[in-house]
Specification:
CATH class: Alpha Beta
CATH architecture: 3-Layer(aba) Sandwich
Order of helices and strands: EEHEHEHHEHHEHH
Distance between the termini: 23 Å
Oligomer: single chain
CATH superfamily: SGNH hydrolase
Helix content: 25-40%
Shape: globular
Radius of gyration: 18 Å
Structural class: alpha/beta
Number of strands: 6
CATH topology: Rossmann fold
Number of helices: 8
Length: about 300
Amino acid sequence: MVRWYSSTTLLALLCPLGTATAQQTTTKYLFIFGDSYTATGFNPSGAKPSPANPIGNPALPGSTFSGGWDWPGYLVTAFNTSQTLAYNFAVGGATVDSNLVAPPGSGIPSFVEQIGRWQGVGLPSRPAFAPWTAENTLAGAFFGINDILQKYWQGQDAPLGQMVERYFQQFQTLYSAGVRNFFIMTVPPLDKTPQIMGQSQQGRSRIMNSVNSFNSQLASRLETFKRQNAGVTGVVVQTAAAFEAAVANPRAYGAPDATCTNYNGKSCLWWDALHPGESIQRLFAQGVAGAFSGSFF
């Protein structure tokens, strides 16, 4: 069975920062791929991640779509119990494969192209860019939002089955290079975002049917991937609880209601009508850290 981890039910599993009984000193590595929910503006040609700035460039919290910190930044700081360096190839607007679903703008690298960038800077050869190993490295991906919405705005349904296959072809590339630890961030319930709340009931249902089907197919395909590849640890991190917790009690997260937006990322749940602010992003990070508590975090 695939292990599902909720970003709120895992709270009890997490050690508060600084309370780990045996803090690990060995450097760990994160390879991250995704879209605007994940991007920090990392340029592979710029400064590499380092203890002083674990996301490399720009300086923490990076250039994000949250008004400040997003989940990769929180993950390597607030929820980190060791020295963990994050190579974050995510770019706003990315889809799984531009040939299946075109991104909302030109020149936006898809998951396929982000893996190409990962290969291009020498990370598969390890010592050329970072001394990572199968044991000290974790790779994760967060895709599907743009794919589903781009097709929805065009009055179409996203090619979910093809997207899932391309998704795991990228994981296979990582596996062939030596990666053994993987996680998938599910697409959150987009009907809880202010943008999709404004759609008709029929429209919201169409979107959520695609979201639920995509997430289900990802989980099933992960089990196949694990059976076909020896030594894989694969985890599905369920993001829905982060949205649900914040929307159910926005005042607990510093927001007056569940729908307001503010570019400061702090005084509302939402940075804009589609992108969560810092509170929800922190819950995302909490979910990933909880899924790997005791091993990577």
